[in-house]
Amino acid sequence: MHPIVLAGGGKAGERFIEFFTATIRNTHTRASYAHAVSVFFEWVSVLGVTDLRAISPVMIAAHIEQLGTHLAVPTVKRHLAALRSLFDWMTAGGHMAHNPASSVRGPKHVVSKGTTPVLTAEETRHLLDSIPQRGIGLRDRALISTMVYTFARVSAAVGMQLSDYYQQGRRRWVRLHEKGGRLHQVPAHSRLELAIDEYLEWLGPAISPSTPLFQSFSTTGLPTGKRMSRHDAIRMVKRRSRAAGLSDSTCCHTFRATGVTTYLRNGGTLETAQAIAAHSSTRTTSLYDRRQDELSLGEIERIAI
Question: What does the alpha-carbon distance between residue 48 and residue 270 come to, in Å, rounded to a whole number?
Fold first, then answer.
């Protein structure tokens, strides 16, 4: 814990720990906010600040301005959000007179189009068909298919257990644990069902329903029973994409954007795409709609010089 917090006494330290353990459930958000707070405390320590109550809006504004010289706007806004949330919590606990970050404005950042690289339906099919249909290849094909056909985030996909792929009526369903603890259930596409069934058949009888669906593999090519991490998944995607001759920019989020774009191109509605992707608004879903990319390129080619 930083000396600036410790200077406020034991209760301030307890309140500080509670902020990260009790109010932030997402592990990635917790790590991101902890980093942002640590960077700020180190910065104000150089200015001679030794107590939370000595932090002023001017200091925070100067820090945000300095971050903007070398960090992307969304990252700077995340740093400011972390400080606002923490100081709100400390103020409510009586360890600060007011929230010095509440009056500080962050940099403007307007996003009307996503930047995630998107594949065509043909490129995605080529990628899936290029993966060997045996051993670890069956796992990789099933994982990529899950992200494509359910629009799932990679963390939700690798977080699945065997029980999260289940029978309901005549169809198989996929249960995803999304951000914020939201439980999201999607019917399995016929191609996804085939990919997962072939993988499970090779995997053999499950030890228990709580067994991780997408497992890491040992150097001998056998499943370890341990869950794949999202870092394992991105390394796998990069490896499979290179082998298929696709762009190095292909990433796990590519399949979320590709699935949404392909669905909309085939006549799907933005509202239904929002529901499948478990987005809170259609505005977020529209960032994944890249149908205009192809139209724009075609129109540019009309400049026949």
Answer: 52
Number of residues that make up the chain: 305
> Model pTM?
0.66
Contact (Cβ atoms closer than 8 angstroms) between residue 227 and residue 241: no
Q: From its phi and psi, is residue 252 left (phi > 0), alpha (psi between -120 and 50) or beta? A: alpha
Handedness of CA 131, 132, 135, 141 (dihedral sign): positive
Encode the chain (305 residues) as per-residue pLDDT tens digits: 789 998 888 899 999 999 999 888 878 889 999 999 999 999 999 999 999 999 999 999 999 999 999 988 889 999 999 999 999 999 999 999 999 999 998 887 544 455 678 898 999 999 999 999 999 999 999 999 999 999 999 999 999 999 999 998 888 999 998 776 678 888 999 999 999 999 999 988 767 888 999 999 998 888 998 999 999 999 999 999 999 999 889 999 899 889 988 888 888 888 888 888 877 777 777 766 666 655 555 555 666 56
Structure tokens at 46: 């150089």
Contacts of residue 275, Cβ cutoff 8 Å, sequence gap at least 6: none
Question: Cα separation of 188 and 21, whole Å?
Answer: 35
Q: In sequence order, what E strands does the chain have?
A: 165-168, 171-177, 183-187, 215-217, 223-227
CA distance linking residue 190 with residue 182, whole number of Å: 25
Residue 31 φ/ψ, nearest 5 degrees: -65, -40
As a whole number of angstroms, the distance between CA 135 and CA 220 comes to: 11
